[in-house]
Write a structure and sequence with these properties.
plastid, stearoyl-[ACP] desaturase activity, 395 residues, two-stranded antiparallel sheet, single chain, mainly alpha
């Protein structure tokens, strides 16, 4: 799961698909606050505790009605046969060392020299995007934590043998390779300021994320379906650009990660497909609720200790390079709506039909907003990125 754009914003939903959450709904539902706090500092002899640089407020929790949990209990056997099959045997899986210079070999120094030579002419803006993707992959502890907040599917013991828990741990293990591989590549490249990157990762993990999934697996698996497809697109585009810049090994690295993300997308999408089969009304209401709130991207609380708008600046570079764009956001939703046959749902309640119409009309609406955003983006500006030694990059 990699970093993506927060490209579209809509008013918060006044009503959830699951209205009996533990906190008041309606007008108290809010987005992430923009207020920033300085990192922990020592004042005299007193040391202030770490405070996340960006705050979130009035989060809704446990919005899924208790009786819905029975659905996920009943699907444990189905998940074993239909979801766990999308995991790869560890002994047959690729590992980061497969793509990197071998430190035990006599030719290690020469291999590193070749790597640095290949990436020497790759432009700074590409490295900004690659670093942003890597940092988001490195915040993997946050994503496993998020999935383990979901009622009915969480790993209750840390080593639970339910299919849901096995999937979450094994998915995390597969995803863990992504950050490891990109981190080592960037370290060896010599093109980036690793200490600033490491600080950004520490800030991000310490801050967490606020996907607004409300401990609700309907919302959570819609979120992960969207995100996995987004990361598939993003890593695929960084592979394409690496190839254009002449670094075929980096293209192979990004393409291999993209293939993992595609496989994970398939698994999460199958879960929602099954929920549409069992509970079409509840699932379409959840989809509409998630899209009204918009898909908050995993690293939206990104901070490097300097740039209070780091995520927005990174996103602007990704948009300009075509790595991940507002059009991609619309395309992903259109793809998922088609995959889940949302337009063909029947037997819905009145509220369900309204949600169906709303969701099916969103891709066209998103594309209109994307055209407006593209027009505004024509005003050129540049900002320094600490990740590349404060060199400036065009947004």
């Amino acid at each position: 799961m990699a970093l993506k754009l927060n490209v579209l914003s809509f008013p918060a939903a006044k009503h959830s698909a699951f209205p009996n959450g533990s906190q008041h709904r309606g007008s108290h539902r809010v987005f992430m606050a923009s207020t920033l706090h300085p990192p922990s500092v020592e004042v005299g002899n007193a040391k202030k505790p770490f405070t996340p640089p960006k705050e979130v407020h009035l989060q809704v929790t446990h919005s899924m009605p208790p009786e819905k949990r029975e659905i996920f209990d009943s699907l444990n056997g189905w998940a074993e046969s239909n979801i766990l099959v999308h995991l790869k045997d560890v002994e047959k899986s690729w590992q980061p060392s497969d793509f990197l210079p071998d430190p035990a070999s006599d030719g290690f120094e020469e291999q590193v020299k070749d790597l640095r030579e290949r990436c020497k002419e790759i432009p700074d803006d590409y490295f900004v995007v690659l670093v942003g993707d890597m940092i988001t992959e490195e915040a993997l502890p946050t994503y496993q934590t998020m999935i383990n907040t979901l009622d009915g599917v969480r790993d209750e013991t840390g080593a639970s043998l339910t299919s849901w828990a096995i999937w979450t741990r094994a998915w995390t293990a597969e995803e863990n390779r992504h950050g490891d591989l990109l981190n080592k590549y960037l370290y060896l490249s010599g093109r980036v300021d690793m200490k600033q990157i490491e600080k950004t990762t520490q800030y991000l993990i310490g801050s967490g994320m606020d996907p607004r999934t409300e401990n609700n697996p309907y919302l959570g698996f819609i979120y992960t379906s969207f995100q996995e497809r987004a990361t598939f697109i993003s890593h695929g585009n960084t592979a394409r650009l690496a190839k254009e810049h002449g670094d075929m090994k980096l293209a192979q690295i990004c393409g291999t990660i993209a293939a993992d993300e595609k496989r994970h997308e398939t698994a999460y999408s199958k879960i929602i497909e099954k929920l549409f089969e069992i509970d079409p009304d509840g699932t379409v209401l959840a989809l509409a609720d998630m899209m009204r709130k918009k898909i908050s991207m995993p690293a939206h609380l990104m901070y490097d200790g300097r740039d209070e708008n780091l995520f927005e600046h990174f996103s602007a570079v990704a948009q300009r390079l075509g790595v991940y764009t507002a059009r991609d956001y619309a395309d992903i939703l259109e793809f998922l709506v088609g995959r889940w046959n949302v337009e063909k749902l029947t037997g819905l309640s009145g509220e369900g039909r309204k949600a169906q119409d709303y969701v099916c009309g969103l891709p066209a609406r998103f594309r209109k907003l994307e055209e407006r955003a593209a027009a505004k983006a024509k005003q050129a500006s540049s900002v320094p990125f600490s990740w590349i030694f404060n060199r400036e990059v065009m947004l």
